[in-house]
Design goal:
heterodimer, A: mainly alpha, Amino acid/polyamine transporter I, about 80% helix, about 0% strand, B: alpha+beta, CBS-domain, 7-stranded mixed sheet, 4-stranded antiparallel sheet
Chain lengths: ~425, ~425
């Protein structure tokens, strides 16, 4: 009996390891250059004050991502595929166009992250950005899905850099626990905006597409779905821990010393006198890793999603000549994204601005689509949302829609 | 007169006196003929929730942007009924994936090209191209103007005749029906192409297409398909069919594939197989992975040494199922000891009466079943054979390893 028990445990673990990946990768890409900047600013401006918000954000993240993973496992189809079949070519086309634009903005942000993190150790952007773009491009064009996923999973490990730098910054653990147990809700316009920013950077349209596509690509069986769900939960947990440590680092140093910063690279530099060389380097390294990581996944996921929806051949296992639109789009996103960073004196702000506005418009539409699809009995069979879960997810989605409109209005008003 | 389905959709339906009744929302087609005919219209009456059905015979004309009905047609509206061999164009074909058996790949339907002749409306082509997308977006005139003006170029139509189209209904209850009607072209594809198509489909459709193949095609396709998918495909077939397919596969391929199945499923499948196949397979399954035995096949011709060339040729002719290699004939004595080898050259060039024992080559390179696969590779490299015989401790001929098997075991993706 105990032998059988151990054997079945062992088997469960093996299945889990085979299924794991999509959730963890998706969540970690979520902590990209934009995400890290937001967490940095949150820590630097509001100290430990916004730490509590990460817990509800994690719950929301799990709810939204679980639905995408479930749809992927049950239908075996990607999200844009389902949207195209259900809502027709017209809606799909404009939705994908919007996704393309907002993701393009994100890709630019990732290359900006590469430039500024390597700028700290005096590598000029004219060297770092083209090199990064080329490496990222090669990874996918020359690799297979399995090798690519492996590289991505290893990249997830490097997020440990932020946890170590968090310890190096010697935060006041007493007040950290205090803030987590007894959150103080601040209703100043600034902190509310920050809160919206935190949510906005964590829940983005592209990740629904990426997660579902990755789940489909792994060909996970319905009976193994619970492992896929565990993957999603684990991923969301890791992402929250990393985000928490970034906020901790900045709260314990920059906030305490009252140093204002504008971005993550600034923060890394400012950490040097406050928390030591290593803390600063680790922080910069984390930013580099995150930017590179997201820079390789975002264009990939975008090209994948667009081709799937439009009915063009796609996938990293295809050759260039078999899937020209796929590789064309992928290459264009990378080289155009990197190229814009290299233009001297390019104002990044308007590009980011437009990308964020589109993001705010697309997210509500997409979330409603997801809810319609996941409640479609013809599609999901017995795996439609259960009643309580449905209530929960509608509430979450409506909450997110309100938040993203709030964010949109605040962006539009400047 | 040709017209596109997308142009028909949403047209106003009027009665013989010009009074508007509603809008056209779908067409029902009876599949089976070379160019299938539209039999029923689906019309949403003004203010009605569910659309109703109306026979095509009630249509007077399709002129202008109107569908004009005959006298008193309004009384003939009824509820929609889907009989065997009938599909709804919008619900089951437009924007969905189909197999293009001409190009041997999966395509997404952007539009459907219809022809009106002799009062009948028939499907003639399916549109996969960019023109179809732009037409449905309402941009086609603008795109044509721009490409003409700038490049003196017009986007080409990409339409495939209906006869090459294999629709894939997504409704589980209807799957079989559609495939039975039009399966005609699918089995003409090369198994490697079929395998690619199956890999590109989602899980449900994979099973549908696989189940529709005849046993031999299914076996050949299964050998070509990604090993990760093999198990789920065979599980989708009935047990009887599954064991038939296994019998049809090359025994070594079948053994490899069985080795990956769960124990219970494996023994069940083997039990349902016919005796000679079963014994071969069970023997192959006893060898450990990485040994010569695990990659050898039982598919070879052996003949006793006291026979003549003409008897050997007869033996050859009696072997009806395709062998993995016909390069060599193995010569044995009465106790099945391997004593020599002949090539096809011998059969073609030597006189009929010549005894095999005089002609055969007795300098044999052979391996034991427990030999390491790497050793086998070395032998192939050194001697450039097409196949190597495998003998047990007592020099009894138990199988052969073909060059293809050795290459496949070294490069799994072959």
């Amino acid at each position: 009996m105990p032998k059988d028990f151990i054997k079945s445990r062992w088997k469960t673990l093996l299945i889990f390891l085979a299924v794991v990946g999509p959730g963890i990768i998706t969540s970690n890409v979520d902590n990209d250059a934009g995400g890290i900047t937001t967490y940095t600013l949150a820590g630097a401006k509001y100290g430990y004050g916004l730490l509590w918000s990460l817990i509800p954000i994690m719950v929301v993240l799990v709810i939204i991502q679980e639905m995408s993973a479930r749809m992927g496992v049950v239908t075996g189809k990607g999200l844009s595929d389902l949207i195209r079949e259900r809502f027709g070519v017209r809606i799909t086309f404009y939705l994908l166009l919007a996704i393309l634009l907002t993701n393009f903005g994100n890709v630019i942000a990732e290359f900006a992250g590469v430039a500024s993190s390597l700028g700290i150790i005096n590598i000029p952007k004219y060297v770092s950005v083209p090199l990064a773009a080329f490496v990222v491009w090669l990874l996918v064009v020359k690799g297979t899905y399995r090798s690519v996923e492996k590289v991505f999973l290893y990249a997830c490990l490097f997020y440990v850099a932020y946890i170590i730098s968090g310890f190096l910054a010697k935060p006041d653990w007493g007040s950290v626990t205090n803030e987590l147990i007894k959150p103080r809700l601040q209703f100043s316009a600034g902190s509310l905006g920050m809160l919206m920013g935190l949510v906005g950077t964590t829940i983005a349209p592209w990740m629904q597409f990426y997660l579902q596509a990755a789940v489909v690509e792994k060909n996970i069986k319905v009976k193994d779905y619970k492992h896929s769900r565990a993957d999603v939960v684990l991923g969301s947990f890791i992402v929250t821990i990393v985000a928490g440590f970034i906020i901790l680092t900045c709260a314990a140093t920059l906030f305490k010393a009252g140093i204002p910063v504008n971005n993550a690279a600034d923060a890394a530099l400012a950490l040097k006198p406050l928390a030591g060389r290593y803390c600063s380097y680790l922080f910069a390294f984390g930013l580099l890793n995150a930017s590179l990581f997201a820079a390789s996944i975002l264009p990939l996921s975008t090209a994948f999603v667009v081709c799937e929806g439009m009915g063009w051949e796609n996938g990293v296992n295809k050759k260039f000549s078999e899937a020209p639109q796929f590789y064309g789009l992928y290459s264009l996103l990378i080289f155009l994204g990197a190229g814009i960073i290299l233009l001297p004196g390019i104002p990044l702000f308007p590009v980011m601005y437009i990308s964020q506005v589109i993001n705010g418009i697309v997210l509500p539409v997409l979330l409603i689509f997801i809810l319609i699809l996941i409640n479609d009995k013809k599609l999901m069979g017995e795996y439609v949302n259960k009643r309580v879960y449905n209530f929960l997810s509608w509430a979450t989605v409506i909450g997110l829609i309100l938040l993203s409109f709030g964010l949109l209005i605040s962006i539009l008003r400047g | 007169m040709f017209l596109f389905f997308s142009e028909l959709l949403g047209r106003s339906v009027i009665d013989s006196e010009g009074k508007s009744l509603g809008k056209l929302v779908d067409l029902k087609v009876k599949i089976g003929e070379l160019f299938p005919m539209v039999v029923t219209l689906r019309i949403r009456k003004r203010g009605a929730k569910a659309p109703l059905a109306l026979d095509w015979s009630e249509v007077e004309s399709l002129n202008g942007n109107l569908v004009t009905l005959k006298l008193d047609a309004e009384k003939k509206f009824k509820d929609l009924q889907l009989n065997e061999g009938e599909i709804l164009l919008k619900e089951e074909l437009l924007d969905k994936q189909v197999v293009d058996t001409y190009g041997a790949k999966i395509e997404r339907v952007n539009d459907i090209h219809l022809l009106i002749a002799n009062g009948e409306l028939r499907i003639v082509h399916v549109d996969f191209g960019m023109r179809g997308i732009f037409r449905r977006l309402g941009w086609i005139k603008m795109v044509d103007f721009l490409t003409n003006w700038f490049f003196a170029y017009q986007l080409p139509e990409k339409m495939i005749s209906w006869k090459y189209i294999q629709p894939l209904a997504s409704d589980p209850q209807k799957k079989n029906l559609i495939l039975n009607v039009t399966l005609r072209k699918l089995h003409e594809l090369h198994p490697s192409d079929l395998a690619d198509i199956i890999e590109d489909l989602d899980q449900g459709k994979r099973a549908t297409v696989f189940k529709s193949l005849d046993t031999q095609t299914a076996a050949e396709t299964l050998e070509e398909v990604d090993p990760k998918l093999q198990a789920s495909l065979i599980e989708s077939a009935s047990e009887e069919k599954a064991s038939d397919i296994l019998e049809e596969m090359a025994p070594d391929e079948a053994a490899d594939f069985l080795a990956d199945l769960p124990e219970e499923k494996k023994s069940k499948l083997i039990q349902t197989m016919e005796k000679p196949h079963r014994e071969k397979l069970e023997e192959l399954l006893t060898f450990e992975e990485g040994t010569a035995g695990s990659i050898m096949t039982k598919d070879f011709i052996s003949i006793q040494e006291d026979k003549t060339i003409s008897e050997a040729i007869d033996e050859f002719r009696k072997t009806t199922h395709p062998l993995e290699t016909i390069a060599y004939l193995y010569v044995t004595d009465k106790e099945n000891h391997l004593v020599g080898v002949l090539t096809v050259r011998h059969l073609l060039l030597c006189v009929n009466e010549a005894p095999l024992s005089k002609l055969m080559n007795t300098h044999l390179i052979k391996v034991k079943p427990d030999e390491d696969v790497k050793e086998v590779e070395e032998i192939f490299k050194k001697y450039k054979f097409m196949a190597i015989p495998v003998v047990d401790e007592g020099n009894h001929l138990t199988g052969i390893i073909t060059l293809r098997d050795a290459v496949e075991s070294k490069y799994k993706e072959f």
